[in-house]
Amino acid sequence: MERSVIVTGGSRGIGRAISLGAAKAGYQVCVNYAHNAAAAGDVVSEIEATGGKAITVQADMTKEADILRMFETTDRELAPLAALVNNAGIVDTASKVEGMSLNRLERMFTTNITGPFLCAREAVKRLSTAHGGKGGGIVNISSVAAKLGSPGEYVDYAASKAAIDTMTIGLAKEVAAEGIRVNAVRPGVIYTDIHASGGEPGRVDRVKSMVPMQRGGEAGEIADTVLWLLSDKSSYVTGSLIDVSGGR
Ligand code: NDP
Q: Residue 209 to residues 196, 215, 216: CA-CA distances in angstroms?
C-alpha cells in the first residue's frame, strides 16, 4: 500500500539522511525546507533517480500557515500520510544565559517546540484511526542536550529539546489507542552543518573526547534508528526516548 512521510528539515544533515532512507523503505517523501531550495531539490532528484516519489515543500516551522500548507500539499500530491518526522531544529551561538535575548529565546522555542507541536497536531488529525486514518508513526528528533542541559553554551536549546521529550511521552499516551506510536531519537554530536550555524564548525571534533565511543556520529546512524521506529520491527515501542550518541 502506498504511503507518505513528511520530514521537516528534510533537505540537509540528519533530515536528508532520513528522507533518503524513508524513500528506500518505500515511503513517498515530503522533503520540507525553510531557505535552501537547491538542497531540497537535490534530495528529491536522488530519490527520483532510484524510482521513488518525493516533493519539496518550503515551509517555515515558525509559521502556522506554512505548516498547514505543507500538510495540505502533501495530502494533494502524495499517498496518504503514514508518518511524520519532526526533525527541523536550530541552535544559536554558544552563550551564557545573561547573553540570551528575548528574540533568540522566542526563535529557539518557536522553531524547536512550537513548530513540531503544530506538525504533530496536523499529523494526528490524519493518522488517527478514530478519525478514519490507519494509524502511523511520529518520530521527534530531540538531543542528548535535553538530559545534559548544555550549561554555559546552549541551555535554551537543551530546554527546547527537553520540551520535545515531554511532548513525546504525553502524546504517545494520548494517541496510543488510536494506532499512532510517538517516539523520540536523541542524537549526540553528529557531523552536520548545524555546528557551523552555532558558530563553531569544529565542535564535533572538540567534544568527541567526551563521547565514550570517542567519535562523532554520522547522519545515517540517526536515520537508521528513525526508520526502525517507523517500521513494524518496533511495533510495541511508543513513548520512548532513544539516545543515539555513542554512549554520551
Ligand atoms: P542542519 O543544520 O544540518 O539542518 C537543519 C535542517 O532544518 C535544514 O534542512 C533546514 O532547512 C531545516 N530548518 C531549519 N530551520 C527551519 C525552519 N524554521 N523551518 C523549516 N526547516 C528548517 O541540522 P542537523 O541535521 O544537524 O539537525 C537536525 C535535527 O537534529 C535538529 O532538530 C537538531 O536539533 C537535532 N540534533 C542535531 C545534532 C547534531 O549534532 N547535528 C545533535 C542533537 C540533535 P534549510 O536548509 O532550508 O534552512
A: 19, 7, 9
Q: pLDDT-based confidence at 168, cuts 50/70/90?
A: very high
**CA-CA distance, 134 to 233, in Å (whole number)?**
17
What pLDDT, on the 0 to 100 scale, is given for residue 107? 98
Digit-coded pLDDT (tens) for 118-148: 999 999 999 999 999 999 999 999 999 999 9
3-state secondary structure of 190: strand
Q: What is the pTM of this model?
A: 0.98
Vertex 118 angle, CA 93 and 217, to 5°: 45
From 6, 7, 12, 18, the mutation candidate for ligand 1 (largest count of ligand atoms within 8 A of CB) is 12
Look at ligand 1, atom 10, and give the residue with the nearest C-alpha. Answer: 9
Task: Sort strands 180-187 and 54-58 into parallel, antiparallel or unpaired.
Answer: unpaired
**Which domains are delineated in the chain?**
4-244 (3.40.50.720)
What ipTM was predicted for this assembly?
A: 0.99
Q: Can you list the alpha helix ranges (DSSP code H) found in the chain?
A: 13-24, 37-49, 64-77, 102-109, 115-127, 145-148, 155-175, 194-197, 203-207, 219-230
Q: Which of 16, 31, 32, 33 gets mutated to test ligand 1 (max ligand atoms within 8 A of its CB)?
A: 33
Task: Give the single-character DSSP code of 178.
Answer: G
